[in-house]
Amino acid sequence: MSRLLYPSLGTALLLLPLGAARAGGSVPVFLDIEPTQCPNTFIPPVSLVATEVLPTAVLGTDEFNSRTVQPASLVLIVPGGGGINPFETYLYPIATGFADVATPVADSTMCSCTTDGPDGIEDLTATFDAAELAAALGNCPPDISCAGQTFNLCMEGLLVDGQPIRGCDCILVLAPVSVEGRSWGRTKASYR
User: Fold this and answer.
1) First-to-last CA distance in the chain?
2) 111 within a domain of the structure (yes/no)
3) Do 37 and 92 form a contact (C-beta atoms < 8 A)?
4) 3 in a structural domain
5) pLDDT per residue over 159-187, tens digit each?
């Protein structure tokens, strides 16, 4: 379930640690959306053909131990979210874990990616509900207004010592696959 953060007393207390990250005092981390996929494509869930989750990873490096991150503190920030807050929507992972899944890109500028797999250093993995992400992006399904657009997503969280972290990556939204009815047992799929 998506938990949107609004300026109320309860959520204001929750936002205090993350507020420092927005002030620029955060530790930069490598965020990889769809590890080993390049570009990072996202297909909003629709009908029988669906992307159920969006996998992400905070990548460990020789200088950064992913185990120093509090998994429960992670939030994925979707700018321009389609929810009540018109500026940002915050999504929380449905699952987290530790595994070596990807290699950081040499050029860490936004939207750089690599298909390189594990590098021998443990990463913090987090999966997010794809339907929640699609809703946060706006009204992607069923009108597919997001297809072909690139969105920058950032993840924030806290280290075990309370210091904030922040990493960003991007996704390219593709239109959902449509299955043509009456295909007589054959599935005819097309990308719009």
Assistant:
1) 28
2) yes
3) no
4) no
5) 999 999 999 999 988 876 544 443 333 33
